[in-house]
Amino acid sequence: MNPQVSVLRKGRKLDQVLAGAREIFLRDGFEGASVDDIARAAGVSKATLYSYFSDKRQLFQEVVQAECQRMSTEIVSKIDDTMPIREALSAAAYGLTKFLVSDFSQRIFRICVAERDRFPELGQAYYAAGPGNGHQQLVEHLAASVACGELEIADVDMAAYQFSELCKARNFSLACFGVKTEFGESEIQDVAEAAVDMFMKSYAPKQA
Asked: Which PANTHER family does this one have (predicted)?
């Protein structure tokens, strides 16, 4: 790693570099993206780019982490700890379902799958910043809901995985295979509501 990276990470041109890299990675993929094109899109010199990131892989990982953090913050900001569990899950399901079919998510997913064998660290970075981080937050929220009696779950970790998979119903597969690339609010909401309905049928406290 470039020894200057930790010092310069907060430099004023960092946002430009990340924005330019995001544009080129989404347009050309990882292998097709050139440092020259990224620097040009960012409006900086290659020397400036390398002062922040030692190589293209590190830059890709930073773009992914920044976008996943933005998405996570957006979803979490809509969830209040005082919300009833169904309302909180509905907000989370809508945010996740919408993100999964977003242009960014779909393109990054395809890049990570395509480069899995040669550059497994790309997919690992995306998983850690996105699905992995979201999973851990959901586990904590579900555990708190179990503790206060809102849910009855024997395996909270598995339940969190199940919730995420329910949010992939229909739209995610259609987007992955290019059958459909744009989804209306009602299509996203339908999947989110169905996910919460099925989840609550399994884990809501049973009536005596």
From this structure: HTH-TYPE TRANSCRIPTIONAL DUAL REGULATOR CECR, HTH-TYPE TRANSCRIPTIONAL REGULATOR RUTR
For residue 64, give the nearest of 119, 141, 137 by alpha carbon: 119
Q: State the span(s) of the chain assigned CATH 1.10.357.10.
A: 64-203
Mean pLDDT of 38-54: 93
Measure Cα distances from 38 to 13, 42, 96, 109, 133 in Å: 13, 6, 29, 20, 28
Asked if the model's pLDDT at residue 6 lies above 60, the reply is no
For 35, how many CA atoms within 13 A lie in the half-sphere containing its CB?
A: 15
Neighbouring C-beta atoms of residue 91, cutoff 10 Å: 19
pLDDT single digits (tens) 147-183? 999 999 999 999 999 999 999 999 999 999 999 999 9
What CATH architecture applies to the domain 1-54? Orthogonal Bundle (1.10)
pLDDT tens digits for range 89-148: 999 999 999 999 999 999 999 999 999 999 999 999 999 999 999 999 999 999 999 999
Give Cα separations from 77 to 10, 38, 83 (angstroms): 24, 32, 12
| Nearest residue to 69 via CA among 143, 128, 138 | 128
64-203 CATH: 1.10.357.10
Dist. CA 28–CA 80, nearest whole Å? 39
